[in-house]
Design a protein that fits this description.
Layout: H1 19-30, H2 51-57, H3 62-77, E1 91-96, H4 106-117, E2 123-124, E3 133-136, E4 142-148, E5 161-162, E6 166-167, H5 198-210, E7 220-226, E8 234-240, H6 258-271, E9 281-285, E10 291-295, H7 325-333, H8 336-346, H9 351-369, H10 374-381, H11 391-410, H12 415-434
Antiparallel strand pairs: 1-7, 2-3, 3-4, 4-8, 5-6, 7-8, 9-10
Length: about 450
């Protein structure tokens, strides 16, 4: 990905104008109509408001306000034509729309966000521990969620971060906005993730769902965004805002359809999500009264190790219901090698994270082959006690030791061949362990 350059700092642009045009601009400024605008401003009521007041309503910084005042002074003195510096206007640019995969969606969303930024400043989500912003259209309706890379975790630019590794708003993060980042985000705890990588993982979850849209991950892309009150341009993930009736923990899981719960669980195992809780599953009541679930907040997926997995749906009764045939066919169709190529093509995801995805996806596919339920598969991937390795970790270590011995014996040194040997060995180890598990009996006949 190309190196991003910083945006130019605002500079005042002036030009000499005739006395008639100067008087015309002065009258327009007194009416609170932006200079050089062909039509009256619709941002604010024109009566009893100066151009400086209008600038204040737009949340301009003190230095930018000084430039506006200087412009008014230039009009009054009759020396120059006043113009609002172009660089103080907000802007948003799409970095990658992945249009090689399917018709472009993001151009229209970007256009609406760009219009909205002229009227409404990015709204910082007060809950959560990372910088997360709601972006609106010109009518003031939320249409997108922006997560800047430089406001993640312990970054000095994170408006919620306090020294010591704890967010100023961490206390409310678990019961706050569903769009805020998860509760455990201290860099001391999340050793698998580097500041600035979460946005790539947000996009990764979308890319892996884009072909079939089985999981329902909202449309997500990477953008550059500049707003006048920010010190510099920001790069991050932009996700389509999903209208919802709250988060899953607002009402509890008892009335959720089995297939909706299964799709969330399958996604989490596909990307080995380490932070799935009831606050980052949106719910929406359909016209027929049935709820649909939308997974969001995937910044802590695709880790570099297997020791942090936890899924709230493990306690839900739907996870103990066997997969139906349609769901099984989808799981069988997942190709981890194709997924790896896709992620490497578009995103700087670490190789260790790609391997974790292959391992976790193999667990999912082998589990289905051995007629395990979502609950059983998720339990294999999770630690019951934080200090004790999960069954998946034990199987991986066994396979790694066996594969190393085989490669050493045969003189195999090529990393690609070593990985193939390891994954094949791991598949055999998984089948051996899964065949010993008792059949799931609780809630087998549960239906919605």
């Amino acid at each position: 990905m190309a190196t991003l350059s910083s945006p130019p700092y605002p500079t005042t642009s002036t030009s000499v104008a005739s006395p008639l045009l100067q008087r015309h601009n002065l009258q327009r400024a007194r009416r609170s109509t932006p200079v050089n605008s062909p039509t009256p401003s619709r941002l604010h009521k024109p009566s009893q408001q100066s151009l400086v007041q209008a600038a204040l309503c737009r949340a301009f910084s003190p230095s930018q306000l000084r430039k506006v005042k200087e412009s008014l002074e230039e009009i009054s003195s009759g020396e120059k034509q006043a113009t609002v510096p172009k660089a103080i206007l907000p802007s948003i640019e799409l970095i990658e729309d992945f249009h090689t995969l399917e018709p472009v969606f993001f151009q229209e969303l970007i256009r609406k966000v760009r219009e909205g930024l002229q009227f409404h400043a990015p709204e910082l989500c007060v809950e959560g521990v990372n910088g997360t912003y709601f972006l609106k259209n010109k009518e003031g309706r939320k249409i997108a969620v922006f997560k800047p890379q430089d406001e993640e975790g312990s970054s000095e630019h994170n408006p919620k971060y306090k020294k010591g590794g704890r967010s100023a708003s961490a206390r409310g993060s678990w019961r706050g906005s569903a769009y805020a980042s998860g509760g455990v985000t201290s860099s001391k705890v999340r050793k698998d993730f580097q500041v600035g990588e979460a946005s790539y993982r947000e996009v990764a979850a979308y890319l892996l769902d884009r072909k079939h849209h089985f999981y329902g991950v909202p449309n997500t892309c990477m953008v550059r965004l500049w707003y006048p009150t920010w010190k510099s341009e920001k790069v991050g993930s932009l996700q389509e805002f999903v209208m919802n009736d709250g988060a899953s923990w607002d009402i509890g899981p008892s009335i959720f359809p089995v297939k909706e719960v299964h799709k969330i669980g399958i996604l989490d195992l596909h990307i080995f999500n380490t932070d799935r809780h009831g606050g980052n599953i949106l719910l929406c009541e359909n016209d027929d009264g049935v709820y649909s679930l939308t997974p969001i907040d995937h910044g802590y997926s695709l880790p570099t190790s297997l020791d942090r997995a936890w899924f709230d749906w493990l306690t839900w009764p739907q996870s103990r219901v066997p997969f139906d045939d349609e769901t099984k066919r989808y799981i069988e169709s997942i190709d981890p090698e194709d997924d790896a190529k896709l992620l490497k093509t578009f995103l700087p995801i670490p190789n260790e994270s790609i391997l974790i995805m292959k391992i976790s996806t193999m667990l999912l596919k082998r589990g289905v082959h051995n007629n395990l339920t979502l609950s059983q598969i998720g339990t294999i991937a999770s630690r019951k006690v934080p200090e004790k390795p999960s069954l998946l970790e034990i199987m991986v270590e066994e396979a790694r030791t066996t594969a190393k011995g085989m490669c050493d014996r045969d003189g195999v040194t090529d990393p690609v061949e070593i990985e193939k040997t390891f994954l094949k060995t791991l598949g055999d180890v998984m089948d051996q362990n899964m065949s010993k598990l008792p059949a799931e009996t609780a809630q087998r006949r549960m239906t919605w």
